[in-house]
Amino acid sequence: MDIFTDEYFMRIALSEAQIAFEKEEIPVGAIVVSDNKIIAKCHNLTELLHDVTAHAELQAVSSAANYLDAKYLKSCTLFVTLEPCQMCAGALYWSQVSRVVWGASDEKRGFQTMGGQLHPKTKVTAGILADECAALMRSFFEKKR
Amino acid sequence: MDIFTDEYFMRIALSEAQIAFEKEEIPVGAIVVSDNKIIAKCHNLTELLHDVTAHAELQAVSSAANYLDAKYLKSCTLFVTLEPCQMCAGALYWSQVSRVVWGASDEKRGFQTMGGQLHPKTKVTAGILADECAALMRSFFEKKR
Q1: Which helix (H) or strand (E) holds B82?
Q2: Is B57 a residue of the active site?
Q3: What is the rounded distance in angstroms from the CA atom of residue A77 to the CA atom of residue B86?
Q4: A93 contacts: CB under 8 Å, gap ≥ 6
Q5: Which residue has the higher pLDDT, B120 or A145?
Q6: Which residues of A fall within a CB distance of 8 Å from B88?
Q7: What pTM value is reported for the model?
Q8: All domains in chain B, ordered by first residue
């Protein structure tokens, strides 16, 4: 039995999203996994840093590359609680990450709607813990109203 | 007579690209201007930092926001020597920058080819000092061969 399922890792990304939620950030979390080892764990920090580029995925790409001391993430999987935006899809494209797994889809601002693309070699799995990831987002925007 | 023309500012972005060239980085430079004042000046650092997100524009968006202590660049113009990629177009989208001016077009990796979009409120001017910006890129790739 393999404990290292997509659900296992997505739950850790979701706990990062929860940390963002508690900081009153849009609750998105991302982790990078290499050989079942988590090498980056990040959450959205755009409000606290006053920086629109501080999305969870963008930080995760930088942080994982820093850990590996290498530009490319060819043997890594990025787990993120929400479908990446075009900026993050672009960063993932350049990183040549092996696989991207996301939770909830983002029909308004996801890269599939806004345009942009992942690297042709990157495999994609969508919808892991989608309900829980989406519920956390809904709960954030309901609180904001 | 206004000395603060698009050519004036693009020449400064080009001098940043030249610095990247000298560091053996793909020679792209970007600056952010607010009320004719340069508030960010950056060049591509992807090789030195081993970080695919270290494009000139992405650094410039972060750096300008940091200078302004504000998330949005609504009254700013970004000048960049090369048409932005989808990642940088995405960052510029989120920044709601007032205007983007680029030099050379990037038919392979520019966001107009790869997909993605700027903010609907962002004005665009393309082709400022395009020949000089393109010549520096060509010279870089010829040296690499």
Answers
A1: strand B76-82
A2: yes
A3: 21
A4: A116, A117, A118, A119, A122, B86, B87, B114
A5: B120
A6: 87, 90
A7: 0.96
A8: 6-144 (3.40.140.10)
